[in-house]
């Protein structure tokens, strides 16, 4: 069943049949592409919701393949990322729903080290700079915890 958000319909990739004749939308030109090169790239975007410190839900379209820190910054969502995504801080700490958390790639030891510094750490905490958006994350909610300031 499609998910209807922002005036568009979304069908999770896992529920699309291989015989589907429609291509993902939208299609846009590859950045820095010459006008003589007609190649286009399919950019898949899915709706996700950030829940800010006050509990306000912010629905955004997230580009599959980008990390959650990048997505937050693109949509002016307050998620610091002081190190610029270099895995040297914990200011992009996010809390995930259990079913999403359980599907994420395994943490590297450096991420665990940085998470030890995070305020309000939970058993489903990860750093947004380390999590790339995947198609199966359609409709997920991710919490930005209160950092105490």
What does this structure look like?
- It is a single chain.
- 12% of the residues lie in helices and 24% in strands.
- By secondary structure, it is an alpha+beta fold.
- It has a domain at 44-143: Beta-grasp domain (Ubiquitin-like (UB roll), Roll).
- Strand 5 and strand 6 (57-63) form a beta hairpin.
- It has three helices and nine strands.
- The strands form three sheets. It has a five-stranded mixed β-sheet with strand order 6-5-9-7-8. Strands 1-2 form a two-stranded antiparallel sheet.
Average pLDDT, rounded to a whole number, is: 82
Helix content: 10-25%
Show unreliable segments: 13-30
By CATH, the superfamily of the domain at 44-143 comes out as Beta-grasp domain
Q: What overall geometry do the principal axes of the alpha carbons give?
A: globular
Give the number of DSSP strands. Answer: 9
% residues in beta strands: 15-25%
Individual helix count:
3
Named CATH topology of the domain at 44-143? Ubiquitin-like (UB roll)
Which terms summarize this structure?
149 residues, alpha+beta, Ubiquitin-like (UB roll), 5-stranded mixed β-sheet, two-stranded antiparallel ribbon
Topology:
Elements: E1 3-5, E2 8-10, E3 27-29, E4 40-42, E5 45-51, E6 57-63, H1 68-74, E7 93-96, H2 98-101, H3 109-115, E8 125-127, E9 141-143
Parallel strand pairs: 5-9
Antiparallel strand pairs: 1-2, 3-4, 5-6, 7-8, 7-9
Short description:
The protein is an alpha+beta fold and 149 residues long. It contains 3 helices and 9 strands; from the N terminus they run ββββββαβααββ. Strands 6-5-9-7-8 form a 5-stranded mixed sheet. A two-stranded antiparallel sheet has the order 1-2.
């Amino acid at each position: 069943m499609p998910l209807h958000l922002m005036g568009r319909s979304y069908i999770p990739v896992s529920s699309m049949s291989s015989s589907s004749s429609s291509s993902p939308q939208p299609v846009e030109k590859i950045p820095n592409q010459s006008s003589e090169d007609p190649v286009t790239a399919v950019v898949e975007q899915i709706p996700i919701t950030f829940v800010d410190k006050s509990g306000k839900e912010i629905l955004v379209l997230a580009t599959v393949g980008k990390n959650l820190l990048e997505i937050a910054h693109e949509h002016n969502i307050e998620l610091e990322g002081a190190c610029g995504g270099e895995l040297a801080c914990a200011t992009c700490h996010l809390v995930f729903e259990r079913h999403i958390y359980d599907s994420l790639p395994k943490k590297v030891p450096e991420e665990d080290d940085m998470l030890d510094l995070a305020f309000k750490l939970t058993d489903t905490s990860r750093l947004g700079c380390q999590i790339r958006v995947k198609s199966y994350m359609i409709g997920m909610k991710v919490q930005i915890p209160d950092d105490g300031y």
